[in-house]
Amino acid sequence: MNVIFHTLTGIALGSALTSREKPTSMTKKIVTPILGFTLGIISHGLLDVLPHTYPLKSHVDIIFSLVAFALTLLIVKKETIPLFTCCFLGSIFPDMIDLGPEMANQFFNLKLPTIKAKVFPWHLPQYSGSIYTKPSPISNLAHTLIIILSTITIFTNLTKTIRFKRRAAETDETPF
Ligand SMILES: [Zn+2]
Questions:
Q1: pLDDT per residue over 11-46, tens digit each?
Q2: Cys-Cys link to 87, which of 13, 54, 100, 135 (CB 3.0-4.6 A)?
Q3: 148: number of CA atoms within 13 Å, CB side?
Q4: Ligand 1: distance of its center to the CA of 53 in Å?
Q5: What's this model's pTM, rounded to 2 decimal places?
Q6: How far apart are CA 113 and CA 117, in angstroms?
């Protein structure tokens, strides 16, 4: 599946795992990001087994994904950055391992050696949902659902994750 859908899921995961209080204990500071990384990998597998096409070309896909992640880091609270980074890295990790050299070749016009063997089973032809050669309504539905569910998750958690607060002057009623 295009990396942008994994990125969006990773950002949604980071939003859902952000706690209301600042992560102060070492356990929360370390365990939650590790959990985010692991869930990111699992979400990648779930997305890849869904029937899908590739609506974005590799270059555009990678640029959009990096911009989306960079923008996320700019607007989330500083203390949540390790968590969001781990969720993002987890959600793209399987592609970095199995498809990294292939993607680097396409992106930078390199000639790195690539191998057919895959570490993650959902990249094997028999398990991957990459089964279409032409645009498909089922793939469109899968992509739309991923966008809707991720957007809902990101927006419902916005008060916990976002760095900026409305200024008091905007929220207070002006006394007469
Ligand atoms: Zn993948």
A1: 999 999 999 888 778 878 899 999 999 999 999 999
A2: 13
A3: 6
A4: 12
A5: 0.88
A6: 12
